[in-house]
Amino acid sequence: MRDSCQGPDRSEHPNEPFDEGGSAAPRLVVHPPDRRGWRRVHCDGRSLGTAYRYEDIAIFLAAAGMEDAQDADLADPGFVEWRGGGPEVWSAPPM
Question: Stretch 60-74: mean pLDDT, rounded?
Answer without folding.
Answer: 93
